[in-house]
Design brief:
Blueprint: E1 4-9, E2 18-23, E3 26-33, E4 36-41, E5 55-64, E6 67-78, E7 85-87, E8 104-110, H1 112-122, E9 144-148
Antiparallel strand pairs: 1-9, 2-3, 3-4, 4-8, 5-6, 6-7, 8-9
Bound molecules: FE2/S2 (inorganic) cluster.
FE2/S2 (inorganic) cluster (FES) is lined by residues 44, 46-47, 49, 79, 81-82, 84.
Length: 149
């Protein structure tokens, strides 16, 4: 079963930025990469460094000797202790993606209309001669980033 945790208004986490949040006993890095959001466990699988505090960078790939390409710019986080690199979008390490990885979490942006729908789901309708109850206007004004754990 997943639980929902609000991180921050979407406008506070612009492309290229990250925010590290604590949810229960977990520390989780939430990243905005070109308008898409990703979340990683803030623990490096090597020696448990705070991985998500590392430098955000890209990586070099090579098909043959003397040729190389710079790829995934802004999509790689480099561990601050020993510089192992991880793909923020998958949690996989760059050097051994099939065996070394960090945990990822689902993260979404909920719009005002998404939350308006949720609010209406919680409402009840009156039937018959039931007396009316006091009602209040409720508005949600901004998109928020939500983490599912
Ligand atoms: S603790 Fe992250 S590379 Fe060593």
């Amino acid at each position: 079963m997943t639980t929902r945790h609000e991180v921050c208004p979407a406008e506070e986490l612009t492309p290229g930025e990250r925010r590290i949040v604590e949810v229960g006993n977990l520390a989780i890095g939430v990243f905005n990469i070109d308008g898409e959001y990703y979340a990683l466990n803030n623990v490096c699988p090597h020696q448990l460094a705070p991985l998500c505090e590392g430098r955000i960078t890209g990586t070099v790939t090579s098909e043959s000797v003397g040729e190389y390409d710079w790829e995934k710019n802004g999509q790689i986080v480099q561990c601050p202790w020993h510089h192992w690199e991880f793909d923020i979008t998958t949690g996989e390490s760059v050097f051994n993606p099939h065996k070394v990885r960090t945990r990822t979490f689902d993260v979404e942006v909920e719009s005002k209309s998404d939350r308006d729908e949720q609010v209406s789901c919680y409402g009840t309708s009156l039937q018959g001669d039931e007396p009316p109850v006091q009602t209040y206007d409720v508005e949600i004004e901004e998109d928020i980033i939500v983490l599912y754990i």
